[in-house]
């Protein structure tokens, strides 16, 4: 009686073994993809950080190139003494003291926060 069932169990065992083998392959591939995803996320974070630093550098360079001081320094049509005078006057205008009313406004806001808190 047992030998009658063995012919049924052999194909079922083969099917289950094949299924298990495919499942093991799938899990291995899933682990490998998961590891590569983590690596890609780290690389993207690094690239974002580098991108932000480069954007800041470009903004600084744009500010330098657009400034009138840069133009005065590279104006080759002027004599050295005239260029120095122009650079000094332009630099004074670009680096003038901050607006007193804005500074007073900021101080008033700080005092109000202190009194409230």
Could you walk me through the main structural features you see in this protein, from its secondary elements to its overall organization?
The protein has one domain (13-96). The chain contains 4 helices and no strands. The protein has helices spanning 2-66, 68-73, 80-94, 100-116. The longest helix is centred in the first third of the chain and has 65 residues, at 2-66. The mean pLDDT is 79.
The count of strands amounts to 0
Secondary-structure class: mainly alpha
* Gyration radius from CA atoms, angstroms: 37 Å
Binned, the helix content reads over 70%
Count of all domains: 1
Morphology: elongated
Largest sheet: none
Low-confidence stretches: none
Number of discrete helical segments:
4
Order of helices and strands: HHHH
How widely separated are the two ends? Answer: 90 Å
């Amino acid at each position: 009686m047992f030998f009658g069932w063995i012919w049924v169990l052999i194909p079922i065992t083969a099917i289950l073994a094949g299924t298990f083998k495919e499942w093991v392959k799938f899990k291995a591939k899933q682990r490998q993809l998961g590891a590569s995803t983590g690596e890609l996320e780290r690389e993207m974070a690094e690239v974002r950080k580098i991108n932000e630093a480069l954007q800041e550098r470009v903004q600084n360079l744009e500010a330098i190139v657009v400034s009138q001081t840069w133009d005065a320094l590279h104006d080759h049509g002027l004599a050295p003494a005239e260029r120095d005078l122009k650079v000094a006057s332009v630099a004074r205008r670009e680096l003038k003291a901050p607006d007193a009313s804005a500074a007073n406004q900021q101080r008033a806001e700080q005092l109000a926060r202190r009194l409230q808190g």
